[in-house]
Amino acid sequence: MGRMTHVLTALAWPYANGxxxxxxxxxxxxxxxxxxxxxxxxxxxxLMVSGTDEHGTPILVQADSxxxxxxxxxxxxxxxxxxxxxxxxxxxxxxTRTTTGNHxxxxxxxxxxxYGNGYILQQKTLGAISPSTGRTLPDRYIEGTCPHCxxxxxxxxxxxxxxxQLDPTDLIDPKSRINxxxxxxxxxxxxxxxxxxxxxxxxxxxxxRTGWRTNVVRFTKNLxxxxxxxxxxxxxxxxxxxxxxxxxxxxxxxxxxxxxxxIGYLSATIEWARRSGxxxxxxxxxxxxxxxxxxxxxxxxxxxxxxIWPAMLLGANGEGAKGGEPGGLGRLxxxxxxxxxxxxxxEGRQFSSSRxxxxxxxxFLERYSPDALRYYICAAGPENQDSDxxxxxxxxxxxxxxxxxxxxLVNRSIAMAAKNFGAVPEPGELERVDRDLxxxxxxxxDAVGDLIGQNKVRAxxxxxxxxxxxxxxxLADTAPWKMKExxxxxxxxxFTVLQAVSDLKTVMSPFLPHSSQKVHELLGGEGVFxxxxxxxxxxxxxxxxxxDGPYPILTGDYSDVPKWESVPLVPGxxxxxxxxxxxxxxPSIVDEEIERLNS
Length: 599
Ligand SMILES: [Zn+2]
Prior knowledge:
Elements: E1 6-11, H1 22-41, E2 45-52, H2 57-66, H3 70-87, E3 94-97, H4 101-116, E4 120-129, E5 142-145, E6 154-155, E7 172-176, E8 184-193, H5 199-207, H6 214-224, E9 230-231, E10 233-235, E11 253-255, H7 257-262, H8 264-276, H9 283-286, E12 292-298, H10 302-317, E13 337-341, E14 344-346, E15 349-350, H11 361-367, H12 370-380, E16 387-389, H13 391-420, H14 432-453, H15 457-478, H16 487-508, H17 513-522, E17 534-538, E18 551-555, H18 588-598
Parallel strand pairs: 1-2, 1-12, 2-3, 12-13, 14-16
Antiparallel strand pairs: 4-8, 5-6, 5-7, 8-9, 10-11, 14-15, 17-18
Helix pairs in contact: 2-3, 4-8, 4-10, 6-10, 12-13, 12-15, 13-15, 13-16, 14-15, 14-16, 15-16, 16-17
Bound molecules: zinc ion (ZN).
Main location: cytoplasm
GO biological process, one term: methionyl-tRNA aminoacylation
InterPro entries: Anticodon_Met, Met-tRNA_ligase_1, Met-tRNA_synth, Methionyl/Leucyl_tRNA_Synth, MetRS_core, MetRS_Zn, Rossmann-like_a/b/a_fold, tRNAsynth_Ia_anticodon-bd
């Protein structure tokens, strides 16, 4: 990717039925932000979008349990999630919601195009009714035993134990959760996405994908061997209405939550463009054939991004087996790359909100800095295999690597220069050892950047930390604190190490933006170095959605980011005694946190 291009960075949509735990941001939130920040520094026109996923049964169940209306519950958790992602410094251009009028319109537009092209089938299927009232029994009010894992309180649309999507008819011994009676199943019409009509087109498209993680390609190819029409409507009173005569006004039928949620990537881009004052600007990321799109998600979500969303786009473009014409939005780009992460476990256990094996992002950031968490995630996150978060490892990574490595380099070098020179010293002639260090820090731009570009964040930050170690070794070997009688050489050494620190603050900034901003200021820099998102209260752009009043979005101005390159330090720039960039943690936090987790 040599030239400037439009880069869509699309992050999976967190579900708004509770606060998010650190597993959610470890898999794709932070890695995607690293990618977006780096791409911006390389001069690309990046758009990073997502939002909260607010339809479907789990929202209704959560709202019931809190005595709230669904819209109130969704709004409550949308706000909490927005605040957490902001605190972590995730640089969204737009983080919105699936209950906006703009989203409803976009979803219905895509449905209508798919329907018009013949890719949505209307089929008879068995729906549940209550024998005593004769009314439709929504999926979430049916409970029974999961046919896959034997869990005895699986719901009619999914099993909370094994996570599989279900139909009410799949349940063994189904019962109404309202009055315990056995539901009666009657034939009803529902809509299905005709996935088999995309088998050839998906296969051909997958063959053109290079550089994908092998687990994603293998998984997707396997799926293509057995494509079935997939239901896209449900017996539900909370969701996007079906835009067809005779259906739009029905309160008991809605589009299935997954169908509307994947369209969020497109609707969020459109909303961003409309809010930016240039309503057609979304097309640069979706219709320009040179634009690229990277989708970030956990492994449980691969199917939606590598198979179903591409199938929906093919259908909307008229490019499946039944042909057709592009709809009102024109021909849309399929994903360039699907970047899936594995799972983060917690002290050897699966995260589980219900069993309280959980660390919420908010609780974490109340006690520790966002960059401490970001460092852990980048260095030890579940990139290629499941990884386990332990407090002992968090302590070790923070104290031995972040504080003793990068933080120590920054503070020692700036403190020595401030004490002895009060400024960035004027260097004399560089010796071999000085040139070697500066060559290493300059080389780290390419080495680290290439790895981030391939979404190898663990290796990328490892490479950056190797350069930090080289700079610390340089400081130990040259020992400028022993050069009191040779101020010229001392100035040269300190200049050299400060130049290395300056280069490294740039290299570190996609991973650790908060501390790179601090280092920038400690080196006498002014203004914004690593831009941060901000929360804005906005009103819905359109009628017809389900937001109840103004709501917060995450957005930001990232147009003025520094370039991904070494910038020469200016000798004479005043330096003050530095404040520590990172906090060393007391080992007692390990026991405290484990106790908190078990209490
Ligand atoms: Zn199950």
